[in-house]
Design a protein that fits this description.
Length: about 475
């Protein structure tokens, strides 16, 4: 096994035991980037020499016994909405031409302090306003979408071009590309991970979180990221915690909510089969399955778009009026649509969210975790704009991909996607676990227990 193939946890163990140096690991991942990047387009920019210098410094620190923790010497990618001092934050948009960040974002500073090494910035759907990331190709099939908007981060991790990466999630933008590329993606509780220095799409729905190879890896990254920052008005005042899941697979006493409504209503049959099989595995580990009805489902799409579009429009108001031609057409149309929405529309969406949060809180008193598909279908072709379901219903690709992930953004509950197999074409399928606010330890415990019953996952075959 080459160093670039190692999970974060395995690489961390090897570095700590002095069986692997950060220099060897970073060189291996940079070599992998050089090989796969021309085919995948995961990165906006790669800072190879900067990464090599940081790896050398990390190796020197390790030799001196100054070990910063499990992220020491681990190479990562950051979605190009996340500020790093002196580097461009392009948001994959011509609107940001010539931009340079003057300070680190909170998450970049925390990862650097933990010893992680920046490889470069990964592509996003322009300003995170989309679910496909068209400039990036799926790690398993280059003719299919990567998912978005954190498509570059997911593809980098899936292909071995980063040991872990950060993304953002406003309507599924961590979980969708993670599921479509066969990696783990975690959207934390709203406010658990600070967003200071991260370009906003929709302030009341935005989250920052990790994309990794395993659930344990996601827990290691979350441990470094979580914690209060007063510069983010939504940041929660919670004590520092170690999110690493306990060893073992016994889920006795845990109640898994199995949705009777919404999450399985319109999904690809192979997705449903794989996810239900994985839920059966959780039951075999001792969990109790409890059927639940998802509340207020008819309002989910209207609430998601009713919040996201006006907030995005407000953020982009100035540049949309001065340089509209610099936006990609799909994003510009969505931003222009924000000007057609009234204050009343936005207030009604806010009221709907308040009611939905209350209903979800009541539902989550009855179960510990809800298990469901992450996305309704595997990655579609890059040129497909709609999907036609067996009953003849035609749905836009972006609408389909946001449909099962939006509830966690509206309500702010944590959500984790875990790979649970592949379809007949070899494309990944993901299972989504949703929990109570600040219920990350339970989600990570369940996801980790499931992983322990499965064979080790290989890197993407098309990379």
């Amino acid at each position: 096994m080459q160093p670039y193939e190692l999970s974060l946890a395995a690489a961390a163990d090897a570095i700590r035991a002095r069986r692997l140096s950060p220099v060897e690991l970073v060189d291996s991942v940079l070599d992998r980037i050089e090989k796969v990047e021309p085919h995948l387009g995961a990165y906006v920019t790669v800072a190879a020499e900067q990464a090599r210098r940081a790896a050398s410094e990390a190796e020197h620190e390790a030799a001196q016994g100054r070990y910063r923790g499990p992220l020491h010497g681990i190479p990562m990618g950051l979605k190009d909405l996340i500020d790093v001092s002196g580097m461009a934050t392009t948001a994959s948009s011509r609107v940001r031409a010539g931009h340079r960040a003057t300070a680190d974002s909170t998450v970049a500073a925390r990862l650097s302090a933990a010893g992680a090494i920046l490889l470069g910035k990964t592509h996003t759907h322009e300003f995170a306003f989309g679910l496909t990331t068209p400039q990036t190709r799926n790690a398993w099939d280059h003719g299919r979408v990567a998912g978005g908007s954190s498509g570059g981060s997911a593809v980098a991790v899936a292909s071995g071009a980063a040991t872990f990466a950060l993304g953002t999630d406003t309507g599924g933008s961590i979980r969708v590309p993670a599921a479509l590329n066969g990696v783990v993606g975690l959207k934390p509780t709203y406010g658990l991970v600070p967003r200071h220095g991260v370009t906003s799409l929709s302030w009341s729905l935005d989250h920052v979180g990790p994309l990794t190879r395993t659930v344990e890896d996601a827990a290691l990254v979350l441990t470094a990221l979580a914690g209060h920052d007063p510069r983010d008005p939504a940041s929660l005042s919670v004590p520092a915690a170690d999110y690493r899941p306990v060893a073992g697979t016994d889920l006795t006493g845990l109640r898994i909510g199995l949705p009777r409504t919404y999450y399985f209503d319109t999904v690809h049959p192979q997705v449903e089969t794989a996810v239900r099989h994985a839920i059966g595995q959780l039951e075999a580990l001792g969990a109790q399955l409890v059927e639940v009805d998802i509340p207020m489902t008819r309002y989910i799409q209207a609430t998601q778009w009713g919040l996201m579009v006006p907030e995005a429009g407000a953020y982009h108001e100035g540049s949309l009026r001065t340089v509209p031609e610099l936006y990609q057409e799909d994003v510009r149309i969505l931003l222009e649509a924000s000007e057609l929405m009234s204050a009343g529309d936005y207030v009604r969406a806010q009221r709907s969210r308040t009611l939905m949060r209350a209903e979800w809180a009541r539902m989550l008193e009855e179960v510990d975790v809800i298990a469901a598909p992450s996305v309704p279908m595997p990655a579609v072709g890059a040129d497909e704009e709609t999907v036609t379901w067996p009953d003849g219903t035609v749905e836009g690709v972006s609408d389909a991909y946001v449909r099962l992930s939006a509830p966690a953004n509206i309500t702010g509950v944590p959500a984790l996607t875990v790979p649970v197999g592949h379809d007949s074409a070899g494309l990944p399928i993901g299972m989504q676990l949703l929990g109570r606010p600040l219920g990350e330890p339970t989600l990570l415990r369940v996801g980790h227990a499931y992983e322990q019953t499965q064979p080790a996952r290989a890197l993407a075959t098309a990379a």
